[in-house]
Amino acid sequence: MTVILLLFGLVMLYYGAEFLVKGSSHLAFKLGVTPLLIGLTIVACGTSMPEFIVSLEAAATGKGDIAAGNVIGSNICNIALILGLAALIAPLKVKNQLIKFDTPVMIFATLLCCSFLMNGTIGRFEAATMFALFIAYTLINIRMARIQNIKGKDVADEAEIDFKNEKSLLARSVPLQIVLIIAGLLILVGGSECLIRGAVELARWLGASEAVIGLTIVAIGTSLPELATSVVAAIKKEADIAIGNIVGSCIFNILGILGFAGMIVPITAPGINNMDLFTVAVLALLLLPFMWTKKNISRTEGAVFLSIYVLYIVTLTVRG
After folding, report:
1. Does residue 155 surpass a pLDDT of 50?
2. Residue 158 lies in a domain
3. CATH for 210
4. Tens of pLDDT, residues 98-111
């Protein structure tokens, strides 16, 4: 039964990502906004729904290590594993907005979260601060997109997309594009749930701690929608969706998920140690210079990210 769930989950993840990327790129072109904005908002928040559900439930039931470990581990997985794999498939071109605004916001959010977790807890005031920052970030991003629209920047570049002259129903119908996005998100959540359920039980049977389960099995499992979406986007040369999905998800994970969950129930996570916080902070800081060089993330830089992730997982395995 576990094998069937795993296989079924993988199939669901593939088709969910396919629907999400296709619907999102068409919607961005149809509405005259950049795929980057779609990746940073709709796709990022949508693919982070498994993290949101798992962390909220864990916080509500007093399992702070899983709640915080899921978010920290997911961000490590997002940058090191997912961006690493996506860059190996195809070097990812980076837009100026990511370098000048979104990635610095992600770095600030990461360092803020690490400072809050240094004492092993996130109180309601700290959580409310993070959630308020998430709301402000989202509003600023929407405002920036409107300004770009008015000035005609970036959007004209999207005329080069393959489906510019496409006559299909999907290219012409905004409702169908929205349906495809929602269907993709629902399928991604269902697929990740199938994979997570068996994996967590296996880890507990092997005697792993809740913090390690949250940082590895749960984090990877809830990051599978981001993995599937970014890999499919990289294959389809949709770099804006691939990178925007990851950066936006990291911001949403920290400011949105931990912020919202911590406002409801203060999060206590003594199992999250300095190594975990140091790893997520280093990866966030490393992402900006990688983006800055030649304004892309190269295959070599992708390999560096993957190497860091392998080293981190090995260290966690030894830690038990």
Report:
1. no
2. yes
3. 1.20.1420.30
4. 898 999 999 999 99
pLDDT at position 281: 96
Identify whether 262 is part of a domain.
Answer: yes
Q: Is 307's pLDDT higher than 50?
A: yes
- pLDDT tens for 55-84 read 777 777 787 787 888 889 889 999 999 999
Neighbouring residues of 285: CB distance < 8 A, sequence distance ≥ 6: 107
In a domain, 215, yes or no: yes
Task: Please say whether the beta carbons of 218 and 53 come within 8 A.
Answer: no
**Per-chain mean pLDDT for the chain:** 79
Structural domains counted in the chain: 1
Q: What is the pLDDT of residues 285-298, one digit of tens each?
A: 999 999 998 888 99
Q: Which residue segment(s) compose the domain that 222 sits in?
A: 35-168+195-319
Q: What φ, ψ does residue 42 adopt, rounded to 5°?
A: -60, -50
Question: Is 57 part of a structural domain of the chain?
Answer: yes
Which CA distances in Å does 64 have to 98, 122, 127, 249? 31, 9, 13, 20
